[in-house]
Specification:
Strand order of the largest sheet of chain A: 1-2
Order of helices and strands of chain B: EEEHEEHEHHHEHEHEEHHH
Number of domains of chain A: 2
Number of helices of chain B: 10
Number of domains of chain B: 1
Strand content of chain B: 15-25%
Number of strands of chain A: 4
Largest interface: A-B, 27 and 36 residues
Protein name (chain B): ABC transporter ATP-binding protein
CATH topology of the largest domain in chain A: ABC transporter involved in vitamin B12 uptake, BtuC
Distance between the termini of chain A: 31 Å
Strand content of chain A: under 5%
CATH architecture of chain B: 3-Layer(aba) Sandwich
GO molecular function, one term (chain B): ATP binding
Largest sheet of chain A: 2 strands, antiparallel
CATH class of the largest domain in chain A: Mainly Alpha
CATH architecture of the largest domain in chain A: Orthogonal Bundle
Structural class of chain B: alpha/beta
CATH class of chain B: Alpha Beta
GO cellular component, one term (chain B): plasma membrane
Radius of gyration of chain A: 24 Å
Keywords (chain B): ATP-binding, Nucleotide-binding, Transport
Order of helices and strands of chain A: HHHHHHEHHHHEHHHHHHEEH
Organism (chain B): Borborobacter arsenicus
Oligomer: heterodimer
Helix content of chain A: over 70%
CATH topology of chain B: Rossmann fold
Shape of chain A: globular
Chain lengths: 408, 251
C-alpha cells in the first residue's frame, strides 16, 4: 500500500507541470478534462457510492454555472467574491438546489428516483428560456474574470491552476467524506435501504444529504466552467450534459474512487482530439460506451483495479502471450471499423449524395489515400480488416478459455 | 418482573379483505424469553412487522414500555429500543462483514449525518464491532463481502446486526432457519447469552429450540392468540394440541 501515496504524488506533480508540457490548445482541453472529472466524481458520489442513478445532473451543473456568472457580474462587474473564490457561489447554489431536489427525488428509489431527477432537470430546462433575466435567453450570459490577489486571470495558465486547485480540493474532500460515518452510510443506502431503516437511520434525510453534497460539487464544476469560458449558456442545462456525465462515469467505473474522474478525463480528451478530425466523433463515443459496458462492465479503471488488486483467483493473471495478440486484434479491427465508418459518413454526406444523384461517383480522399466508392476493393479491405481483427480476438479468447479449463 | 415491556391490546391487521391478525392481546414481560409459535400462515411474521414499524395496525394498540409505538416508522421504533432480525436474510451484501456491523453499531453512538469525523478513529465503535464479530464467530470473515458468506454465516450476521444497537427488546424472526444441528446449538447459546439482560420475542419452527429456550410461549392460529403459558402449560393445553402441535408433542 506504500505505492498509493507515491502514485498520487506523481499524478499531482504531472498535473502541476502540464502547462509547461502541452500546447495552449491542449491546455484548454486539460481545463475541460479537469472540470469533467470533478463533475463525474460528484455524480458518482450519488450514483456509485449511494446507488442512486440520476438522469438530471445537468440542472446542478447549470445552476452552479449561472450562479457563478451572476456572481462575477455582481456590483457592476466587480464580483461578489474575489475571482479565486467565485466557485463557492456555484457550490452554494448547487447545495441549496440539491437539498430541494433531493428532498423530493429521494422519497422514491430506483427507476422512480431516476425519473424524478430527469423530470426536475427538464422542468428547469423548459423554464430557463422564459427567465431571460436569470438565464439570458438564447445568447446566455457572458462575463469577465477580474484580476484578484495579484493575479490577472487573463491567461489559460492561471485559469488552469485555479481549476486544478479547486478540482484537487474537491476530490480530496470527496475522498475524506467516504471515510466518515456519513460516507459509510452512503454505501448502506446503496446496499439495503430497508435494513438501514430498521437499524434506526433516517433514510430519507441521509439520501437528501448525499444528493445535496453531490449537487454541491456538481455546482462547483459548473462554476469552474463559467470561470473558464467567462459565460454561461442555456445549453448547459440540456439533457445531453446529464447523459455525458453518466456515460463518462460508467466508462471509468462508478464503484472505484477515481474511476469516474479518469473516465471523464479520457473521454473529454478523446472528444477534443476526435472532434477536430471527424464529424461522427459522437458515434465513436457511443461505440466506446457500448463496448466498455459489454466487455468491461466495471468500467476501465474498475477492471484494472480488479486485475491488479490480486482479488482474482490464481492463474487468471495477465499473460503477455495472450494480451499482445488480443490488443493487435483489437487494433486491426478498430482500424477496419474506423475506415468503414468514415467512408460511409462521406458517401452518405449531403454534398456527396448531391453529386451521386447527378450520376457521378467521385473518388474520396481520406487519410492521405484516395478511395473509389464504386470499387469492391474499397469496401472489402476495411471489412476484412474488421473481420480478421475480430477473428484474432475470438481465437485468443477461445484458446485462453481452453487453457483455463485444462488447469481447473 | 411481571410488568410488561411490550404489550399488544386488541391488535387487528387487514390487507384489503384479508384479515390477517384478528384481535391479538399479548404481554411480553421484562427480561423474559417469549416465543411465538403457530402453523404457517398464522400471521407470526405480520405480528413482527406490526411491532417493528413495517406496517401500522388497522386497530388496537402496541405499547413499548408504556408508550404507543403502533404506526411509528421503523427507525423511530428502533430508536426506542426495539430491534428485529428478518426471516429472509436482510443484510448489506456488497460490503464487508465488518462494515455491515459497523453500520449497525454506529447508530447507537448517535452517528448519522456526521461528516467531520473519520470513522476509523472512532475507537469505541471499532472495539464494539470487533467484539461483536468474535461473538458471532465471524472473526476470520471480517473482511469478506457479506454476499460471499455461507447461508448460516449470513444468519449469524443478521442476528449480530440486530444486537448491535443494544436494544431493550429483540425480535428474532426464525433465526435458526436453514442452520445445521451444530450451528443451531451454537446460535441457541448465543441467543441465551444476548437475552440475559434483555427481552426476547422469537418466532421459530424448531420446536426443540422453542421449548428449551422460551420462558413462555404464545400460540398464534389464524390471527388469534389461542394460548399463552409456560412450555409445560402449552404442551398440556388441549386446544393447542388440537390446533397445532398434535402428534409433534405427543411423540
Amino acid at each position: 500500500m506504500k505505492l498509493r501515496p507515491f502514485l498520487i504524488l506523481l499524478a499531482v506533480m504531472v498535473l502541476l507541470a502540464i502547462p509547461w508540457l502541452v500546447s495552449s490548445s491542449m491546455l484548454n482541453a486539460a481545463i475541460q478534462m479537469l472540470i469533467a472529472a470533478l463533475f463525474a466524481m460528484a455524480f458518482s458520489l450519488l450514483c456509485g457510492q449511494a446507488g442512486m442513478l440520476s438522469f438530471g445532473h445537468a440542472a446542478y451543473f447549470g445552476l452552479g454555472a449561472f450562479a457563478t456568472v451572476h456572481a462575477m457580474n455582481a456590483f457592476n462587474g466587480e464580483g461578489l467574491l474575489p475571482t479565486p473564490l467565485l466557485p463557492l457561489a456555484g457550490a452554494a447554489v448547487g447545495l441549496v438546489s440539491g437539498v430541494v431536489a433531493g428532498y423530493f427525488s429521494t422519497k422514491r428509489t430506483g427507476v422512480y428516483f431516476a425519473m424524478i431527477t430527469l423530470a426536475l432537470a427538464e422542468l428547469l430546462h423548459a423554464l430557463a428560456p422564459h427567465l431571460k433575466g436569470t438565464f439570458g435567453g438564447e445568447a446566455g450570459i457572458s462575463s469577465f474574470r477580474m484580476p484578484a490577489w495579484g493575479f490577472g486571470f487573463g491567461t489559460a495558465i492561471e485559469v488552469y491552476y485555479l481549476t486544478l486547485f479547486w478540482v484537487l480540493l474537491a476530490i480530496g474532500l470527496l475522498y475524506l467524506l467516504m471515510l466518515t460515518p456519513l460516507g459509510r452510510l452512503a454505501l448502506g443506502l446503496r446496499e439495503n435501504q430497508r435494513r438501514l431503516r430498521f437499524l434506526g437511520y433516517n433514510v430519507h434525510a441521509l439520501g437528501t444529504l448525499i444528493f445535496a453534497i453531490s449537487a454541491m460539487f456538481s455546482g462547483l464544476a459548473g462554476a469552474l466552467q463559467s470561470l473558464n469560458i467567462e459565460a454561461a449558456n442555456y445549453a448547459e442545462l440540456e439533457t445531453h450534459v446529464s447523459t455525458v456525465v453518466l456515460l463518462n462515469s460508467f466508462i471509468g467505473g462508478v464503484r472505484v474512487f477515481l474511476g469516474p474522474a479518469i473516465g471523464a478525463a479520457l473521454m473529454t480528451f478523446f472528444g477534443h482530439v476526435t472532434s477536430d478530425v471527424t464529424r461522427v466523433w459522437l458515434l465513436y463515443q457511443g461505440i466506446i460506451f457500448v463496448l466498455v459496458m459489454m466487455f468491461l462492465p466495471r468500467g476501465i479503471v474498475g477492471e484494472l483495479v480488479e486485475r491488479f488488486s490480486g482479488k482474482r483467483p490464481a492463474g487468471e493473471g495477465i499473460r503477455l502471450s495472450e494480451m499482445l495478440p488480443r490488443l493487435a486484434g483489437i487494433a486491426v479491427a478498430a482500424l477496419g471499423g474506423v475506415v468503414l465508418i468514415e467512408l460511409l459518413q462521406r458517401v452518405m454526406s449531403r454534398d456527396y449524395r448531391a453529386l451521386a444523384a447527378g450520376g457521378q461517383w467521385p473518388e474520396i480522399t481520406m487519410m492521405g489515400l484516395s478511395w473509389q466508392p464504386g470499387s469492391p476493393l474499397t469496401w472489402l479491405v476495411p471489412l476484412s480488416a474488421l473481420a480478421l481483427g475480430l477473428a484474432l480476438v475470438l481465437g485468443v479468447n477461445r484458446r485462453a478459455a481452453a487453457r483455463r479449463e485444462a488447469t481447473a | 418482573m411481571s410488568d410488561p415491556i411490550l404489550r399488544l391490546e386488541g391488535v387487528h391487521k387487514s390487507f384489503g379483505p384479508a384479515h390477517i391478525i384478528r384481535g391479538v392481546d399479548l404481554e411480553v414481560r421484562r427480561g423474559e424469553r417469549h416465543a411465538v409459535i403457530g402453523p404457517n400462515g398464522a400471521g407470526k411474521s405480520t405480528l413482527f412487522h406490526l411491532c417493528s414499524g413495517e406496517f401500522a395496525p388497522s386497530s388496537g394498540r402496541i405499547l413499548l414500555d408504556g408508550q404507543e409505538i403502533g404506526g411509528m416508522k421503523p427507525a423511530e421504533v428502533n430508536c426506542r429500543g426495539l430491534a428485529r432480525s428478518f426471516q429472509i436474510t436482510n443484510i448489506f451484501p456488497g460490503i464487508s462483514v465488518f462494515e455491515n456491523l459497523r453500520l449497525a453499531v454506529m447508530r447507537k453512538h448517535g452517528l448519522q449525518f456526521t461528516f467531520w469525523r473519520r470513522v476509523s478513529r472512532l475507537d469505541n465503535v471499532t472495539q464494539e464491532v470487533e467484539g461483536l464479530i468474535e461473538r458471532l464467530r465471524l472473526g476470520h470473515r471480517a473482511h469478506t463481502l457479506a454476499s460471499q458468506l455461507s447461508y448460516s454465516e449470513q444468519r449469524s450476521l443478521e442476528i449480530g446486526m440486530t444486537l448491535a444497537s443494544d436494544p431493550k427488546v429483540i425480535l428474532l424472526d426464525e433465526p435458526m432457519a436453514g442452520m445445521s444441528q451444530e450451528e443451531t446449538e451454537y446460535t441457541v447459546g448465543l441467543i441465551r447469552e444476548i437475552a440475559e439482560d434483555r427481552t426476547l420475542l422469537i418466532v421459530e419452527h424448531d420446536m426443540s429450540v422453542v421449548f428449551s429456550l422460551a420462558d413462555r410461549i404464545s400460540v398464534l392460529v389464524y390471527g388469534e392468540m389461542i394460548a399463552t403459558g409456560t412450555p409445560k402449560e402449552i404442551r398440556e393445553n388441549p386446544q393447542v394440541k388440537e390446533a397445532y402441535l398434535g402428534e409433534e408433542v405427543a411423540a
